[in-house]
Amino acid sequence: MDAREFFQKVVVRRYASFVRRQRSRPLPRPLLCPICKSAVQELDRTGAATGYACATHGNFKVADSVFARAKAKHYTREEWEAALDKAKQRTEPDSWPLVITDDFF
User: Fold this and answer.
1) pTM
2) C-alpha 24, offset from chain centre
């Protein structure tokens, strides 16, 4: 196998395979606060909830079931803030409020 043949059979195929893998990977996106849409830090995941550390709204968790509802995409900021207030009312001291689907009703 000469250099040209090696290049065609090995190098080009490996590069093409590498490029295909790179295109199929989703780009990492910053986590956004579901209430104010600002970039936040994700807190440790607990059970079926995602934790958020928002500069505006503090530390809180949102149950995955909230995002499973198609309607969650259309909640207004006021609805989210009201739900967070309900969650804060039932939160034990030294724990984070957990927003659940019932908080939106």
Assistant:
1) 0.69
2) 19
